[in-house]
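just leaving the lab so this will be short. what follows is a protein written twice so to speak, once as letters and once as structure tokens for the fold. can you read through it and tell me how you think this chain folds. anything you notice is useful, everything is just below:
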Amino acid sequence: MKKVVNILLVSAFLLACIPANSQDLKFGHINSQELLTAMPESDSAQATIESLAGDYELQLEEMNVELRKKYDDYLNNQDSYSSLIKQTKEADIQEMQQRIQQFEQMAQQDLQSQQQQLLQPILEKANNAIKEVAEENGFVYIFDVSRGNPVYFSDKSIDILPLVRTKLGL
């Protein structure tokens, strides 16, 4: 709902600002997700992220196997443990569970950070190409249709994706 309201407000603002000779204004649209998918840099960035995620998953699995082993050992032998050993084993299991949770959180944060770091230059390259195409072709506004469905856009709105692909050599 908020997106619809924002689109309507932008549309109303644009209509209020359009002079009488509005036939000279050019509006365009692009699906930026489609553009990013077509860029070869995106594939290598995604492969790097997936490799790192795989490494983290393997480490997490190893930690969980170790935890299960300790827990099974505890369950099988708890009757033979003294009170002190039982408390020590329980504390060790709880501590390991906390380490696993902490590792999961840190891995997720690192993946997000790496993704942002790898995608930032790609996004900048795409945005710069979009701006250059817009300026070279006299567009006054470019709408990104991948960020939600626009309420309406006319046949007069030009899809600049082919122009941007050409600009980027794709």
User: Anything to note?
Assistant: The domain at 25-168 is CATH 3.30.910 (Protein Binding, DinI Protein; Chain A). The beta strands are 26-30, 139-144, 158-159.
